[in-house]
Amino acid sequence: MKRNKTALRILVTLAVVLAITFWVGMSSKEVQAAVIEHPTPINEIFTDPVLTDNVKTLLGKADVTDEVTQTDLDSVTHLSAKSAGITTIEGLQYLTNLSELELIDNQVTDLNPLTNLTKITELRLSGNPLKDVSALAGLKNLKTMDLIYTDITDVTPLAGLSNLQVLNLDINQITDITPLAGLSNLQFLSFGSTQVSDLTPLANLSKLTTLNAMNSKVSDVSPLTGLSNLTEVYLEENQISDVSPLAKLPNLSIVTLTNQTITNQPVFYQNKPIVPNVVTGLSGELIAPDTISDNGTYTSPNLTWDLNSFINSVSYTFNQSVTFKNTTAPFSGTVTQPLTEVYAVVFDVDGEQTSAMVGVNELINEPTAPAKEGYIFDGWYDAKTDGNKWDFGIDKMPASDITLYAKFTENEEPNASSPINVEPNDNNSDNAEPNASSSINVQENGTNEGINNLNSSGEDKVNIKLPITGDELNVLPIFVGAVLIGIGLVLFRKKRQTK
């Protein structure tokens, strides 16, 4: 027995030591690029014919069937193949010293061969249908990267590329640039023609000198106020109405602010809508409208229209130059004020009415359910009799006034708090037993606490409800438990005696 225990301890100890050794060995290994073990024909390393031919030329070989060694491949530091129709970059993983790669306007979709090429500092992949750039997450030495028009939506894999200085992300469906917030060495950042609306992640990129966010969804430029090194800012075709935060940037030499498209929150239509001017200049002053639709007028700070009938929106334009320390830039655009056609919804509770104005095709806010003594509220209906029940989560306001009627159903259920008194059976003797369907109402501590429910076989099932805690005491489980404990003790003693 002692020998078995000793052997077991030795085996456990050895297993622990081996596990620790394996973990240490794995964790100490650095990521390494792939290598070829022996001379291999070029066209067996690279599968894309165009890329194969390109590598053949770089290595000075006569034919793609010529053999090359890993030493030959290590000599390649730059590779460029633009608009060449390349579909796969399989084989590039063996170019272990590659520092610059340019594959603009090809058909590459899989970047996995680049995963371990950590010496790359410049990478230009614009015009490829990449969609996913996860394979680039480990290329920590990247300083310049172009990913223009690559169908990407998520820039999270770029979050750890802290040495990036130049990053181009134009013409993609990117909505969130939060992963770029930690790229403190960025000097040039471009994400024009994207869906980006929030510039907050850029607030601490103090080395940034050039920012291109043209043709995006930007409406607030205040996150840029602390970026004093900015010299060029491209913000045309956005949704900017207030340029005053840019006044805090002393080194701006190029600024573009034209063709802003601003849409206010919808307001209810009325014959004479009054809308405040939202366009603000560099010093915080309101910029007067250049033109106003539908014969509107402007008296600072409001615009006013005199409308004869419902229209979907009114608008005004603006166009004024704003002067910075080192440059002057035109600030122009259009402000649209959507108008919502409104009608009255009337809530009728047995003739008593309240009302609210609701826009066409909008959801109606559900009012508090009315109470009516002796009745249950069923809901709101679009007719006084019959009608359809209104679903406030789906049904929308029609293009007309509407009345919703509260519908009630008489409550036929007994009052749950009333005691149920049961008359004794025909046997009026004091010793008469209750029949199988009887229940006995007991007055206890001022409340009616039941001793009730004879079972269907006519046997008494006695449940005693404690007056204070409300717990029920059923003696049957206690009896069964006591019997089982007794049997267990007897069996245990017999077992000890047999030993």
TrEMBL record:
Region annotated Disordered sits at: 413-457
SUPFAM superfamilies in the cross-refs: E set domains, L domain-like
> SMART domains attached here?
LRR_SD22 (SM00365), LRR_TYP (SM00369)
Q: Name one Pfam family in it.
A: Flg_new
The lineage's top-level taxon is Bacteria
- In this chain, composition skew of type Polar residues spans 414-457
**What keyword terms does UniProt attach to this protein?**
Cell wall, Leucine-rich repeat, Membrane, Peptidoglycan-anchor, Repeat, Secreted, Signal, Transmembrane, Transmembrane helix
Q: Which InterPro entries match?
A: Cu-Rt/internalin_Ig-like, Ig_E-set, Inl_IR, InlB-like_B-rpt, Internalin_N, Leu-rich_rpt, Leu-rich_rpt_4, Leu-rich_rpt_typical-subtyp
Q: Please report the stretch or stretches of sequence annotated as the Gram-positive cocci surface proteins LPxTG domain.
A: 466-499
Spell out the family assignment given in the record's similarity comment: Belongs to the internalin family.
Q: What is the protein name for this chain? A: Class 1 internalin InlE
Q: Which species does this protein come from?
A: Listeria monocytogenes
